[in-house]
Structure formats: structure tokens, C-alpha cells
Amino acid sequence: MRRAIRRFPALWRATRLARRWYHARFNAYPDWRPALGAGTELWQSARRAAQGGPRVLIATSVGAYAHAVTLESAVAAALTFRGAEVHTLLCDGAMTACAECEASLYPNVAAFVDHGPSRDLCRDCLWPAERVYARLGLKVHRYSDWLTPDDRAEARRLAAALPVDQIAGFTLDDLAIGEHAHAGALRFFASGSLEGEPLAEQVLRRYLESALLTAFASRRLVRAVGFSSAVFTHGIYVPWGIVGEVARREGVHVTTWNVAYRKRRFIFSHDDTYHHTLMTEPRDHWDDAALTPTQDRELTKYLASRREGLFDWIVFHRPRRQDAEDIARRLAIDRTKPVVGLLTNVSWDAQLHYPANAFPSMLEWLVQTCEYFATRPDLQLLIRVHPAEISGFPPSRQPILGELRTRVPRLAPNIIVVPPESDMSTYALMSLCNAAIIYGTKMGVELTSVGLPVVVAGEAWIRNKGLTRDASSPAEYFRVLAELPFADRLGGRQLARARQYAYHFFFRRMIPLAFIDPKAGYPIYRLKLDRLEQLLPGASGGLDTICDGILKRRPFVMFAGDRTADLARAAGH
């Protein structure tokens, strides 16, 4: 498939657009008619009661994100049943670039520079989502309703006039406009850097203009209506990162969400993207009680399943080779010398500002780490390149190995590289190691839970938990590496805490919704709702947790503060 995309990009683009047209009309979006028809009186009563209640903005924005419309329409209905007056926000073609745009869809990037998504992606973006919300009787705001001709002129002027080297750091009224525009452009190119892209500056300026338009529209809407909360996916990129900037600045409580690894589960966060909040979450959310034997067995079973992704709907790699000793022989690993594992992540993903990072980029970290290990022949460095470089979507257009070879043409003989397409199990590879070094991968949660020492140099979620060796500068990082190999694995209280956090992360932070049904293809789930009563308070512990978080600012943690409920967790939870 990836080879076909590269060879026939125009055909792939036409096929994807046709497929989206089909899904928009038939099966990608939730059909609320059966549930509403069976509960008309219940729903109309709830809507009347909610008028004048706390106003919540569901800022879906990109209507083509069918999976977001599915979840957010369900959350909107549930909030209505809890007395909230829910409004929605959708783009009607006003943005000049957004998260739906990808270079893989534009074999001629110059066409995107000239017209943005207006001639193709925008055609079937608004109406399917608007139809879903209209059937629920919710107020739908369009971007253009809240933009003036002066707004559009000012956005064009600023986007054209700002020096390119100042865009990433550009702020307007203390809103980090440039950061999200830059992240959006990196996502468009599926690259960790804009260098080497002939039309990078023009694309970046298009994202900057779109970010400004989003800021102008959302700020005017928020000020006019007076929302207490805003809910949307991601919390980064254009548009959601900008909506979040505006909402926080205007004193509106922000809730962001994303699909979790486990099926039927989602991660919600207060005030910021989960890329930030999972690193700063209070420890008392998970560090206050030991796991019960049942919970410990449950965690062990789930972690074992992660090797094949049996209970997950986000799986980047299904390995065929899982025997560690066989892998060691194939890679010619010297079993008399300690091995240190290094795990990369996708270079373009969530390129935001993380003050605690030891290096300015993952590539710089990788290059300096390889240079360091060239001076340590007593150790072996085993680099596992993230499989999502080729299996994720969009696939990375900046393969990390190509970038590494440019900077370090000849790797030291004690450095072994496993490429992203390898069928070798990452778990088996790490079982050969004395320790693991990571930058931003989520694997740190799993590795510490089985006792492997982990060194963190970037924005990995396991940072700040007191479980890893966290470095915030190159000097600190290399001081930690000088201690390798480590004398011991994690054990005792430290291992117990690591497993507590892993359980918290996979079982309590990932909030279940039984009426979200996994499916093959796009989107990866659908709404399976027989009766509106499934959305009422008390019907779903996961939905109660989400709504209480949005309306009452309670932690987005299953059974937060209620250990009895945690231990007696219902099967549906």
C-alpha cells in the first residue's frame, strides 16, 4: 500500500477523496435517528432543561474527522442530560490549512500552496458533521459566522509579512499562534523538520494564516456566547491548539481528548494536550495504594497482550520474531557485553515546546547518543526505529535512519540498528538489554513495569514519576550514561510503584465507553447506542467520569478517590 501511494500519488488522492465521500454519505458518521426516535420525549425534555445551564463548546472544527464527531456527539448528548447547554463549532471552509491536510494527498504541493484544501478536502468536510449535530438539535456555529473581512485581511497580512524565522515563536496577545502553525506544517509534511522541503515556507505561511483565522473566530465566539468549558480532540495543531490557546486566555475550562491504546477507551485531560498533562499529572492519582493481586494479574495479562495488540485498536507492529535468543543471534549481539536499548519515536508527532527536553530534537539526541557510544566499546547500543515510521499514517517523510546517516555516515561497530520494517519484536529486543534510553516513546511505561531501568531525554510520559532517570540537559544526560551499565534492575518498592503507574495509565487513565464499538477500516470505531438511557447519569462509569471532569473539573481518572469502586469495578467499566 505505501509503495502504491508513492508510485501513484494522484490515484491515491482521488481514491481517498472518493472513499471519504462514500463514508460521509453512508457509514462513517453516527446515525442518531434510531435512539432519538425511541426516546423523543426524554431527549426533548433534557434539551429544554439544559437551556440556560453551563454552556459547553464542542469545538470539533474539522468535520471530516468522523471519529471525533462520533465521540463528541455522544459526549454532547451526555452533557445535555446533565444540564449543560451544548454548542458546537465547525469550519465551513474558512481555514486555509488544517490537520486534515497532508502532503500525501497533494503530489503537487504547489496546488496546495495556491488553493489550500478549498477545492477538494473542504467539499465534504462540513455537511456530514453538521447533519449529525443538527439531528441532535444542537446549536452549530460556523467559522465564517465569526470572521469579518478585516479579520481575513489581517490574517493574510501577518502571514505574509512575518519573517519566516520568527513564525514558530510568534505570539499574538499572548497566544502561541506560531507554535501550533509550525507543528501543523510539520504534520503536513510528516517530517520533524521543514528543511529540504522546497515549498516549506509557503505551506508554513498558509498554516500561520489559518491559525490566525482560527484565533479571531474562536475568540469572538467565546466572548459573545460566554462558555464555561470547551471540549475538543488533540489540543495541538491547527485548529485545536489555537482554540485551546484562546479558551484558556478567555478563562474557559479546556478539556482535550484522544483515542487511547485500549479498545473502547479514551484519554481526557484538563487545560492542555495530553502530551503535556501526562508528564505533570499529580502522583497522588496513582501512588497512594499498592495493587491488589487481582489488579496485578490483570496488568500482567494486558502487558503480555501488548506484544500482539490483542486488546488494542492502535497497533503499529505485529512482530513475527519473538524469541530473544534467536534475535540476538541474527543481530550478532555479543552476549558477553551489556546491551543498551534505544527507542525512537515518530519525528513529526506533537512537535511542541517541552522545556525539560535535554536536546532540541530527537535527531540531535540520537546523533549525540551514537557519538557517545562510539567512545564506549564496552557497551553495545541497540537502536530500534519506531515501526510507525512506515506503518503509521501519515507515514514519515523524514526517515530517521536517513537523517542519522547524513550526520553520522559510519556508525561505530558496537551500534546495532533494527529498522522500522523489521519483523523483530520490540519487547524481545528490550529483554536483551541492561537499560533503555528513550526520547518521547510511550514504551517507557511498559518497560519500567517489568523492571527495566529507563533513561529519559525527551517528553516521554513516564518522565517525572520518580521511576526513571530523567535528563533535562546534555550534561545531565551524559552523566547518567556514564553510569552504564546499571548494576540492578528495578525491584522492591520501585518496581511496585512502576506497576502501580502502569495500572493507573492503562486501566484508570484510559476511560472506557461501552457504547463505542471497534470496527475495521475508517473510522476505527462507531457509535453502538440502542437507547438514550445509556447516556444518563449512572449508566456508564466512564461517561460519568468524563462529564464530571468537564462540568466539575474532577480528575479524568476512573474511580478517582474511590478505592472500593476501583476494586469492585464492573465488567462494563
Short précis:
Helices cover 42% and strands 12% of the residues.
- Strand content range: 5-15%
Strand arrangement, major sheet: 3-2-1-4-5-6-13
Profile the largest sheet.
7 strands, mixed
Oligomeric status of the shown chains? single chain
Structural class: alpha/beta
Enumerate how many helices there are, as a single number. 23
Tell me about this structure.
This protein has 23 helices and 15 strands. The protein is of the alpha/beta class. It folds into two domains: 334 residues, no CATH class; 218 residues, Glycogen Phosphorylase B (Rossmann fold), CATH 3.40.50.2000. Helix 15 links the parallel strand 7 and strand 8. It is globular. The N terminus and C terminus are likely disordered.
Please specify the SSE layout and strand pairing.
Layout: H1 2-7, H2 9-25, H3 33-38, H4 40-50, E1 55-61, H5 66-81, E2 85-90, H6 109-115, H7 126-135, E3 139-142, H8 149-161, H9 177-189, H10 200-225, E4 229-233, H11 237-249, E5 253-259, E6 265-270, H12 274-280, H13 293-305, H14 324-330, E7 339-343, H15 362-373, E8 380-384, H16 388-391, H17 400-407, E9 415-418, H18 426-430, E10 435-438, H19 443-449, E11 454-456, E12 469-470, H20 474-481, H21 492-508, E13 511-512, E14 516-518, E15 525-527, H22 541-552, H23 563-567
Parallel strand pairs: 1-2, 1-4, 2-3, 4-5, 7-8, 7-10, 8-9, 10-11, 11-12
Antiparallel strand pairs: 5-6, 6-13, 14-15
Helix pairs in contact: 8-10, 9-10, 9-11, 10-11, 19-21
